[in-house]
C-alpha cells in the first residue's frame, strides 16, 4: 500500500530543522508494511503546499501524511490552505477552546489569543485528537486518497500517529512487506556487499540494500514472502558472521546493555577524546543503570593522573594519546568502579591538537576485564564530531566482541 | 535565486536513514543567499527519479542538487538514469579507474570490480571531483537549470559542495537574503512570539519565523534589506533580553565554551540522569579542552558516594534524586577537579524508575561556583532521550546565566 509524505515548513528547507518527522513516519509505516512512494518538503506558502499536494496525488497513494504548520503562530498556514483545498468550510469550536483554556490554566499559563486558530475546525472530514498539545489533526478524503494533517512538533505528531493514525491505517493493509536488517560495523560497504554476493543465487526474489553510515554498514533484505526472506536471511547471517552486531533494528548500545544484563556483568567507562559520548550512548538505553556503574571524563592530563589515577610516568613517557595510557585508563576505571569491564578511549579528536608524530584522528581504545587488558589503535579523519562517533562505535564493538556469547 | 533538492534513496523513505544531506545543503545554500524552493525524496527507481526531476524542473530553479545513488552497489542507479535523462552517452574512464585502483592499494585494499561503474563518465556535462571518496559528481545543463549530482555519503557530498559546487553557485548570486537568528531556551513558543509581537510595527518588511525544538525556541528574521534587518533585530534583541542565549547560529555549548575561554574559567560536570550527554555536548566544541577539565558519570548510588564523594547520609535521607544530592554533586565535582564551576544533574530519566513521591521526569540541576551553590528543579516528561536533552539544555543555560557578562 502506497503512502506519501508532505512536510511543510520553511525551517526544513533552509536547513534550520532536521526533518526527523519524515524519518519517523517513514519508519513507522514501513514497519507496518506500507511502501513510502515519495516525500516532498514545501515552504509555508499556499501555492507551494498546493503544488506539493497535486504532485503527490497524481500517483494516487492511499494516504498522504502531511506534517507541519498547525501551530499557533502567524507562519502556520497549513490548516487554512488544506481546508480550502478540500473545499471545507470552517467553524469555531467553542467547546475545544474552553477545554484548551482550562488545560493551560492548570499549568499556570493564561492561554494566548494566538491559540484561537487551533480551535478552528472544518465542517467536513474528521478531527484527530492531540493528547499532549493544543494543535489537533484532521483527516479528509480526496479522490481515493486520505489526507492526514498532523502538527510538526515531533512529540505531538508521534503520539497522534500512535493513538489514531496507525490503528486506522493498519485496517487498510492486506499485503505486508517483510523486512530483515543485519547491522555490521568496521568494514566498508563493498567488502560487505561482496561477502553477500558470494552466497546469492539468482532466484532469491528479495530486495537487498546496503546502507553505510558513520556507525557501519546495514544490510537490509525485504520480501513479501516469509519463506524467501527466511532462506536468504540465514545465508546472509552465515556469510557475515561476527561482523553482524545486530539482527534487527537495535543499535550496538542496546545489544550491549541486553547482553550485559543477561550475563549479570557491569561496566565503567573512562573517556578522553569521546568526552562522554560512549556513556551517553549507553545511557540512552532503558535499564542501562543495571550495567553501567559510572565513568569519568578525563579531558586533561591532571584529570587522568589525579582523578582517574593513571601513573604520571606513563603520561610523561608515552603521552596521553598512547596505547599505554589507554590500557591504564581501562584498568583504573575498572578498579575504581569495581566493575567487570573497564572501557577507555583516548585520542586526538581534532580539528586541532595534532603533531607530526601523532596526527589528528589517532585514537586508542582500551578494554580491561578479568586480568586481561587489550588495546586497539584507530586512524580516523580530521572532523571532531565524526571522530567521536566513530570512536564510540569502535569502542562499543570492541566491548561487544569481548562479552562471551 | 531558487534552488531545489532531489534526494534519492529507498533508505530515506523507509525511515532507515535520516535525510541529513538535505539539511546540510539547505543550510549551506540558504546562508549563501539562495532560497530553497522545494525538496523531494524519491526511491532508487528510474520512473521515480524522472518524476521527481520533472516536478522540480517545472518551477525552473537555477540549480537542482541531486544526492544519492552514486555508490558502487547494485541499488545505485542514479548515474545511468540521469545520463539518459539529459541525453548523454557514456564512456569508461580508464585513467580514473587506474587512479582509483592505486588509491585503494595504498590503503591496502584490492579494488572491487563493483567500483567500475564509478569510472563511467558522461560524454556531455562536467565532472565534480571527489577528494575523499570514489564516487565523482557530475554537472549538466537542462533548459535554464543546472543539475548537480553528488554522492549520498555525507562527508563526500559536503566536501564536494565546499570545494566545487559552492564556489560555482556563488558566482550566480546577485541578491543576498540576510538572516538573523535569536536562540532562546526555557520559554514556550507563544510567550516568545507575543513578546516579539509587542514591539512589531506594521512596516518592518521582514520575515519572522518561530522554530520550537527540544532545545528551545529560535526566532529567525530574514530580509533582503540590511537596514530593515538591523532595525528589527535590535528591537527583538531588547524584547527578548536575557532569554536569548545566542544571536546567530551558535548553540549553547559553543556560547559557553567561548565565554569560559574569554573569562579564563574552568568547569567540571557530574552527571547522573544525563549519563554523559552534557559533557558530550561541551566536548563537541573545538577548544573545549581549555575549559572542561573533566567529569564523572555517577550512574549508581555507589558511584555517587564512593567515587564522587557525596555524603552517604544525604543520599539516604533525601534520595539520589533530590536538591541536596544535586547540590552536593556540584560541590564535590568542583572540589575534585579544582575548577571554577561545578555543574550537576540528577533525575529520573524514565521510562521506568518513578514512584508516587518522585515521578519520572523529576530532575535537579546543581551549580557550584565561588562559595555559592544553586539548585533548580525541573518537571519533564516520560521519554528518556528527550528528558536527557532537555536536562542538558537547562543545565547548560543555568551555567550560562551564572557566568558574568
Please describe what this structure looks like.
2 copies of one chain form a homodimer. With 405 residues, chain A is α/β, with parallel strands linked by helices. The first copy, chain A, has 3 domains: 169 residues, Molybdenum Cofactor Biosythetic Enzyme, Chain A (3-Layer(aba) Sandwich); 70 residues, 2-Layer Sandwich (Alpha-Beta Plaits), CATH 3.30.70.2860; 151 residues, Maf protein. In chain A, the strands form 4 sheets. Chain A has a 6-stranded mixed beta sheet with strand order 2-1-3-8-7-6, with helices on both faces. In chain A, strands 14-13-15-16-17 form a 5-stranded mixed beta sheet, sandwiched between helices. In chain A, a hairpin with a 2-residue loop joins strand 7 and strand 8. In chain A, helix 2 packs parallel to helix 6, helix 7 packs across helix 8 and helix 9 runs parallel beside helix 14. The model of chain A has no long low-confidence stretch (mean pLDDT 93). Chains A and B meet through helix 1, helix 2, strand 2, helix 3 and helix 7 of A and helix 1, helix 2, strand 2, helix 3 and helix 7 of B. Strand 2 of chain A pairs antiparallel with strand 2 of chain B, so a sheet runs across the interface.
Class per helix and strand makeup of chain A: alpha/beta
- As a whole number of angstroms, the C-alpha radius of gyration of chain A is 26 Å
Measured as a percent range, the helix fraction of chain A is 25-40%
**Side-by-side strand order of the widest sheet of chain A:** 2-1-3-8-7-6
How many β strands of chain A by DSSP?
17
Distance between the termini of chain A: 40 Å
Biggest chain-to-chain interface with counts? A-B, 101 and 101 residues
In quaternary terms, these chains amount to: homodimer
* Mean pLDDT value of chain A: 93
Main pleated-sheet profile of chain A: 6 strands, mixed
Count of discrete alpha- or pi-helical segments spanning 4 or more residues of chain A: 14
CATH classification class of the largest domain in chain A: Alpha Beta
Poorly predicted regions of chain A are: none
- Which fold does the CATH topology of the largest domain in chain A refer to? Molybdenum Cofactor Biosythetic Enzyme, Chain A
Note the beta-strand portion of chain A: 25-35%
Amino acid at each position: 500500500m502506497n503512502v506519501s509524505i508532505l512536510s511543510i515548513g520553511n525551517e526544513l528547507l533552509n536547513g534550520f530543522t532536521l526533518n526527523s518527522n519524515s524519518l519517523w513516519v517513514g519508519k513507522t509505516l514501513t514497519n507496518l508494511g506500507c511502501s513510502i512512494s515519495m516525500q516532498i518538503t514545501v515552504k509555508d506558502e499556499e501555492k507551494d503546499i498546493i503544488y506539493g499536494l497535486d504532485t503527490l496525488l497524481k500517483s494516487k497513494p492511499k494516504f498522504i501524511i502531511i506534517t507541519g504548520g498547525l501551530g499557533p503562530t502567524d507562519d502556520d498556514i497549513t490548516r487554512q490552505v488544506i481546508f480550502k483545498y478540500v473545499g471545507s468550510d470552517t467553524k469555531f469550536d467553542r467547546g475545544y477552546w474552553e477545554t484548551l483554556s482550562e488545560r493551560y490554566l492548570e499549568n499556570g499559563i493564561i492561554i494566548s489569543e494566538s491559540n484561537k486558530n487551533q480551535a478552528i475546525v472544518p465542517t467536513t472530514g474528521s478531527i484527530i485528537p492531540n493528547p499532549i498539545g493544543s494543535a489537533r489533526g484532521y483527516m479528509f478524503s480526496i479522490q481515493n486518497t486520505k489526507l492526514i494533517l498532523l502538527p510538526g512538533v515531533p512529540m505531538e505528531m508521534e503520539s497522534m500517529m500512535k493513538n489514531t493514525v496507525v490503528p486506522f491505517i493498519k485496517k487498510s493493509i492486506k499485503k505486508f512487506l517483510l523486512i530483515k536488517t543485519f547491522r555490521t560495523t568496521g568494514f566498508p560497504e563493498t567488502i560487505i556487499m561482496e561477502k553477500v554476493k558470494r552466497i546469492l543465487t539468482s532466484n532469491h526474489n528479495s530486495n537487498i540494500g546496503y546502507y553505510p553510515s558513520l556507525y557501519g554498514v546495514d544490510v537490509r533484505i525485504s520480501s513479501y514472502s516469509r519463506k524467501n526472506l527466511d532462506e536468504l536471511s540465514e545465508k546472509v547471517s552465515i556469510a557475515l558472521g561476527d561482523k553482524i552486531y545486530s539482527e534487527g533494528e537495535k543499535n550496538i548500545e542496546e545489544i550491549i546493555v541486553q547482553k550485559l544484563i543477561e550475563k549479570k556483568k557491569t561496566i565503567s567507562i573512562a573517556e578522553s577524546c569521546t568526552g562522554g559520548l560512549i556513556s551517553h550512548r549507553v545511557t540512552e538505553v532503558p535499564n542501562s543503570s543495571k550495567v553501567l556503574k559510572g565513568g569519568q571524563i578525563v579531558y586533561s592530563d591532571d584529570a587522568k593522573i589525579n582523578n582517574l589515577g593513571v601513573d604520571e610516568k606513563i603520561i610523561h613517557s608515552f603521552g596521553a594519546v598512547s596505547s599505554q595510557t589507554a590500557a591504564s585508563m581501562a584498568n583504573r576505571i575498572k578498579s575504581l568502579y569495581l566493575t567487570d569491564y573497564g572501557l577507555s578511549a583516548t585520542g586526538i579528536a581534532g580539528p586541532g591538537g595534532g603533531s607530526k608524530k601523532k596526527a589528528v584522528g589517532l585514537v586508542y581504545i582500551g578494554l580491561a576485564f578479568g586480568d586481561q587488558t587489550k588495546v586497539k589503535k584507530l586512524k580516523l579523519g580530521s572532523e571532531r564530531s565524526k571522530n567521536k562517533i566513530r570512536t564510540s562505535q569502535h569502542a562499543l564493538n570492541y566491548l561487544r566482541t569481548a562479552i562471551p556469547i
